[in-house]
C-alpha cells in the first residue's frame, strides 16, 4: 500500500545533503528507465554511491502515486553489501522530510536464523533438523487447532504459558531462567517444547506458531496477524523481528512471510528471486511487475543463477529414497503373502491402498520405481569404481588421499544423450519410468508423513525431482556428470569408495541466460549494478538482458569511474611474461618467469601497511607465501581453502597490529565483498589471469555451450569472468577519498595488446590509469609514489 507522503521528487528521498554528479545521472536514468519497464545497468567504481543510487530511485517510484511500483527488492550475494543496504535505508529514514512516514524495510534470512528454539539450541531443535522439525511441529499445531481438532490456537498458547509457570514454580530450569529468551527479549514460553495432552497421548506443538494462528483472522488480510504497527517500524533486521516475536509470543518466520509482501524495501539474496524452491514456497508474492529489482554484485548474477538452476541427486539420497519406497511397499507385499515385514516398515497396507486408490499409481509402479533406484545405484557404483581403478590404482589402500573429481557422462564438447540415460533404456527403464517418478514420490511422501505422524521433506521427492529433470532437459545447454566430493563415513565398509566420497548425479545448467531473462521479465524494472561488469555488452548477453531489450524492455548502460583524488593512488600493469602453466612450470621449479613474479610481489609487498597478494589458485598462493617469508621482514599470512570461520579469523588477524602480507587465491572469498576501508589495505598485486580449470569436463561443456550460444565460449565463459575477479581484488585498495594505495597487475596480458590480451576488458578509465611498465621499472615507480605520500 502506498504511504500517504507521495509527491516529493527523488531528492527528498536521497539520504545525504548533496549527491555526486554520477548519482544524479544514475538515479534519474534508473527512474526514467523503470517507468518504461526497463533496467539500468550500472558499473560504478567504489565511492560511486551505487547503494544509495539504487535505493533512492526505487523508493522514489514506490512513493510516487503515478507509479505502479509497490516495493523494492534488493538481491546481493555478499553479507557486507547486505549490511550496506540496511545502513543506507536507515540513513534515508533519518533524513526524510518531517511529515513523511519512515520507509518500511525487511531483511530476509533463513528459518534457522529467526527460529527462537534454533537460535538458543532449545526444544530439541538445531541447525541440522530445524526445517524438518519446524514443518512437523507446524503440522501438528494445525491438526490440533484446525477443523475437527482437539483445541484452539488460543488454548494452546495458554497451555504453553501454564507449562512455563509450572516449571518456574517447581524450580526446574532455575525458575525465571527457564523462559526461552532470544535477541535480548524473554518469551512467555519454556525452553522445552510444550506438549498438549489429548487424553490418550501427549503431542508436541510450537507455541510461537500457535500464537500466530490465534492472531490470524478467519477471513481477511494475513497482515492483521502482525501484532505491531509495521508502517512505523522502519527497517526490521532479523534480530528486530525475533525480538518482536519474543515480545508478543508469535512466530518470527511467519511474521516475515506476511510482512515481505507489505514492506517497501525487502533485502535478500539471489535465492529469493531465482531459486525454484524458495520462490515457490516463500517469496513468490515479490516476483511481479509491481517490484523494482536491485541486483547488487551483478557480476555474480550469471554464476549464482547457474548454480541455483542446476540440479542433481546424491548417492545417499538415492539410498534413502530406496528405503522410503520399501517402507511403503512392504506392508502391501506382506498382506499379499509376497514378503516379510522388517524394521523399515512404517505404513500399513490399508493406508497405502487408500492413498493409491485416489491416483493412477499401483503398487507395481512403486516396485518398478524402487527397482530403478536400486539398479541406478549399482550402475553408479560400477562407474565410480571403474573411474578410481583407472585413475588411482590401489585406491582402496589409501582412501584418505582421494581428490574431488568429475566423471563426465558424455563428451563435453559434443552434445549427445548421456550414458546414464542410454544405460537406463537398455536396462528396460523407458521414458515413462522417469516421467512417473514425481507422482510416485508424492504418494510415497504422503503415506510416510501420515504413518509416521511427521511432516518432513522426503528423499524420494528430491530424487524424483532431479531424475525427472535429468530425463527431460536438453543435452546442449545441460551437462550431466558424476561429481565425487570428499567426505567421510565410518559406517561404510573400509574398502568402499562410499566411505570417502559422496557421489552425485549432477545436471549442470551451462547457459543460464534464458532462465535469468525469464526471471528478470517478471519484475517491473530495476537496476543491475557492480564495480566490475565490463564489457557491459557481454554482461547483457549472458544475463539475457539483450533478449528483454528485443522484446521492447529498454536497457540503459552507465559506467562511472573512481572520483577520488588521483594523486592518492598509483596503478601499474607490469609487462611480465604470461603467468601460465606452460611458462611458469611447477611450483618447485626455479625459472625466470617465477623469479620475475616473486620479485614483483615482494616489491609491492614492501609497501607500508597491509598488502594483498592475489594468485590464480591456492596452489600458487602457497608457493608465493613460502617465497615471501624467505625475503620479507613482514609477517606473511596464507589463506587456504577452508571454512568460513577460519577465513574470518584470518581476516581479523590481517587487520590487527602491524602491516602484514596476505596471500590468497583470486577465486577465494577475500578478494571481493570484504571491507578494506581506511588503513586496512595499502596495496594489492594480482598475478596472472585467474582462469578456472579449462580441463574440467564441466568447464569444457560450458565453453562448448557458450560457443553455440554466443560464438566465443572461451571469451564469454572464461576470460571475462576471470578479468572481473582480478578487478575485484584490485578494487579493494581505494575505498574512500582519503585513502592512499597502490594497485598492480602483473602479466603482460594486462599491459599489451596481443591475441590473448585482456587489456580490452578493462573499462577505458582503467586502461588509462594502468599504464604498462616493464618489470625492472616497477621498483622505481613504487619508490617514487611512496616518497610523495
Describe the structure concisely.
This protein has 789 residues and is α/β, with parallel strands linked by helices.
Molecular shape:
globular
In CATH, the topology of the largest domain is named: Rossmann fold
Give the end-to-end Cα distance, rounded to a whole number of Å.
54 Å
Kindly state the mean pLDDT as a whole number?
Answer: 92
Describe the largest sheet: 8 strands, parallel
By CATH reckoning, the class of the largest domain would read Alpha Beta
Number of strands: 23
Structural class: alpha/beta
Total count of domains: 4
The whole-angstrom Rg is 29 Å
Helix content: 40-55%
Order of strands in the sheet with most strands: 8-3-9-2-10-15-1-16
List the helices and strands and how they pair.
Blueprint: H1 21-35, E1 39-44, H2 50-63, E2 71-75, H3 79-94, E3 105-107, H4 111-114, H5 116-119, H6 130-145, H7 153-170, E4 179-182, E5 185-190, E6 195-197, E7 202-204, H8 207-215, E8 235-236, H9 238-248, H10 252-259, E9 265-268, H11 271-274, H12 276-283, E10 291-295, H13 301-309, E11 311-314, H14 315-335, H15 349-357, H16 363-391, E12 405-408, H17 419-426, H18 431-452, H19 459-472, E13 478-486, E14 501-509, H20 513-521, E15 525-530, H21 536-542, H22 545-550, E16 555-560, E17 569-574, H23 581-584, H24 592-605, E18 611-615, H25 618-631, E19 635-638, H26 644-655, E20 660-665, E21 683-687, H27 697-710, H28 713-730, E22 741-746, H29 748-751, H30 764-769, E23 771-773, H31 778-788
Parallel strand pairs: 1-15, 1-16, 2-9, 2-10, 3-8, 3-9, 10-15, 17-22, 17-23, 18-20, 18-21, 19-20, 21-22
Antiparallel strand pairs: 4-5, 6-7, 11-14, 12-13, 13-14
Amino acid at each position: 500500500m502506498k504511504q500517504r507522503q507521495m509527491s516529493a521528487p527523488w531528492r527528498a528521498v536521497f539520504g545525504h545533503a548533496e549527491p555526486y554528479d554520477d548519482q544524479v545521472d544514475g538515479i534519474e536514468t534508473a527512474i526514467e528507465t523503470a517507468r518504461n519497464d526497463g533496467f539500468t545497468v550500472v558499473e560504478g567504481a567504489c565511492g560511486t554511491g551505487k547503494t544509495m543510487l539504487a535505493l533512492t530511485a526505487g523508493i522514489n517510484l514506490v512513493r510516487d502515486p503515478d507509479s505502479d511500483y509497490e516495493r523494492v527488492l534488493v538481491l546481493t550475494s555478499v553479507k557486507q553489501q547486505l549490511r550496506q543496504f540496511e545502513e543506507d535505508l536507515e540513513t534515508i529514514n533519518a533524513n526524510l522530510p518531517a511529515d513523511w512516514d519512515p520507509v518500511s524495510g525487511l531483511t530476509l534470512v533463513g528459518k534457522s536464523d529467526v527460529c527462537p528454539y534454533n537460535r538458543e539450541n532449545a526444544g530439541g531443535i538445531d541447525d541440522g533438523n530445524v526445517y524438518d522439525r519446524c514443518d512437523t511441529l507446524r503440522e501438528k499445531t494445525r491438526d490440533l487447532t484446525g477443523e475437527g481438532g482437539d483445541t484452539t490456537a488460543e488454548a494452546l498458547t495458554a497451555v504453553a504459558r501454564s507449562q512455563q509457570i509450572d516449571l518456574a514454580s517447581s524450580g526446574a530450569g532455575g525458575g525465571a531462567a527457564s523462559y526461552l529468551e532470544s535477541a535480548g527479549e524473554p518469551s512467555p514460553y519454556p525452553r522445552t517444547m510444550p506438549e498438549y495432552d489429548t487424553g490418550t497421548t501427549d503431542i508436541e506443538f510450537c507455541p510461537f506458531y500457535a500464537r500466530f494462528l490465534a492472531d490470524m483472522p478467519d477471513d481477511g488480510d494475513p497482515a492483521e496477524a502482525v501484532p505491531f504497527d509495521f508502517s512505523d517500524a522502519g527497517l526490521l533486521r532479523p534480530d528486530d523481528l525475533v525480538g518482536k516475536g519474543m515480545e508478543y509470543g508469535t512466530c518470527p518466520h511467519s511474521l516475515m512471510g506476511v510482512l515481505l509482501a507489505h514492506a517497501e524495501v525487502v533485502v535478500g539474496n539471489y535465492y529469493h528471486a531465482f531459486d525454484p524452491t524458495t520462490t515457490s514456497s516463500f517469496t513468490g508474492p515479490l516476483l511481479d511487475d509491481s517490484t523494482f529489482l536491485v541486483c547488487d554484485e551483478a557480476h555474480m548474477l550469471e554464476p549464482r543463477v547457474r548454480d541455483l538452476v542446476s540440479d542433481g541427486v546424491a548417492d545417499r539420497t538415492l539410498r534413502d529414497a530406496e528405503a522410503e519406497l520399501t517402507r511403503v511397499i512392504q506392508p502391501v507385499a506382506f498382506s499379499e503373502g509376497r514378503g516379510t515385514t522388517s524394521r523399515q516398515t512404517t505404513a500399513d497396507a490399508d493406508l497405502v491402498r487408500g492413498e493409491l486408490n485416489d491416483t493412477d499409481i499401483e503398487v507395481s509402479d512403486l516396485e518398478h520405481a524402487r527397482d530403478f533406484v536400486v539398479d541406478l545405484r549399482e550402475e553408479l557404483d560400477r562407474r565410480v569404481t571403474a573411474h578410481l581403478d583407472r585413475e588411482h590404482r590401489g585406491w582402496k589402500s589409501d582412501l584418505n588421499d582421494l581428490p574431488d573429481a568429475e566423471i563426465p557422462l558424455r563428451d563435453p564438447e559434443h552434445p549427445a544423450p548421456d550414458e546414464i540415460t542410454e544405460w537406463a533404456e537398455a536396462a528396460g527403464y523407458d521414458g515413462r519410468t522417469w516421467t512417473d517418478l514425481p507422482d510416485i514420490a508424492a504418494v510415497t511422501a504422503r503415506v510416510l508423513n501420515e504413518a509416521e505422524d511427521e511432516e518432513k521433506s522426503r528423499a524420494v521427492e528430491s530424487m524424483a525431482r532431479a531424475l525427472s529433470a535429468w530425463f527431460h532437459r536438453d543435452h546442449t545447454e545441460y551437462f550431466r556428470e558424476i561429481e565425487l566430493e570428499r567426505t567421510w563415513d565410518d559406517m561404510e565398509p573400509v574398502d568402499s569408495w562410499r566411505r570417502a566420497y559422496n557421489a552425485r548425479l549432477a545436471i549442470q545448467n551451462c547457459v543460464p541466460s534464458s532462465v535469468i531473462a525469464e526471471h528478470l521479465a517478471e519484475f517491473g524494472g530495476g537496476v543491475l549494478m557492480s564495480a566490475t561488469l565490463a564489457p557491459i555488452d557481454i554482461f547483457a548477453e549472458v544475463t539475457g538482458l539483450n533478449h528483454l531489450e528485443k522484446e521492447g524492455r529498454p536497457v540503459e548502460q552507465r559506467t562511472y569511474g573512481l572520483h577520488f583524488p588521483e594523486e592518492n593512488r598509483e596503478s601499474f600493469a607490469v609487462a611480465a611474461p604470461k603467468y601460465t602453466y606452460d611458462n611458469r612450470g611447477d611450483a618447485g621449479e626455479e625459472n625466470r618467469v617465477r623469479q620475475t613474479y616473486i620479485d614483483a610481489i615482494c616489491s609491492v609487498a614492501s609497501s607500508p601497511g597491509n598488502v594483498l597478494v592475489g594468485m590464480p589458485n591456492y596452489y600458487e598462493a602457497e608457493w608465493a607465501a613460502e617465497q615471501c617469508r624467505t625475503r620479507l621482514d613482514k609477517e606473511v599470512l596464507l589463506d587456504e581453502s577452508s571454512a568460513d570461520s577460519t577465513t574470518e579469523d584470518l581476516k581479523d588477524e590481517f587487520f590487527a597490529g602491524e602491516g602484514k602480507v596476505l596471500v590468497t587465491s583470486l577465486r577465494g572469498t577475500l578478494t571481493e565483498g570484504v571491507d578494506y576501508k581506511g588503513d586496512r589495505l595499502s596495496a594489492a598485486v594480482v598475478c596472472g589471469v585467474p582462469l578456472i580449470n579449462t580441463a574440467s569436463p564441466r568447464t569444457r561443456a560450458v565453453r562448448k555451450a557458450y560457443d553455440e550460444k554466443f560464438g566465443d565460449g572461451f571469451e564469454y565463459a572464461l576470460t571475462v569472468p576471470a578479468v572481473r575477479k582480478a578487478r575485484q581484488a584490485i578494487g579493494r585498495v581505494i575505498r574512500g577519498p582519503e585513502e592512499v594505495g597502490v594497485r598492480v597487475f602483473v602479466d603482460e596480458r594486462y599491459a599489451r595488446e596481443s591475441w590473448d590480451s585482456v587489456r580490452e576488458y578493462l573499462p577505458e578509465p582503467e586502461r588509462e590509469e594502468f599504464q604498462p611498465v616493464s618489470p625492472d621499472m616497477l621498483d622505481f615507480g613504487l619508490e617514487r609514489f611512496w616518497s610523495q605520500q
